[in-house]
Amino acid sequence: MPRKPRFFLSNVLVHVVQRGHSRDPVFFEADGYQAYLRWLEKAAERYHCDIHMMQYVGGLA
What we know:
The chain is mostly helical. It has a domain at 27-61. The chain contains one helix and no strands. The chain is globular and about 35 Å long. The longest helix is centred in the middle third of the chain and has 17 residues, at 30-46.
């Protein structure tokens, strides 16, 4: 069964957390992290989102 379409609400703050499978690392090199930041920036522009804060906590168990 396909997933329901996503919906976006205007003027609502959202707390987003990204983790690897079984909390494994998502990025293994700085290049991967930098690419992720570029993709995140493009997605924020595309969907008219503002990113107010971001924190990378590498190796946190």
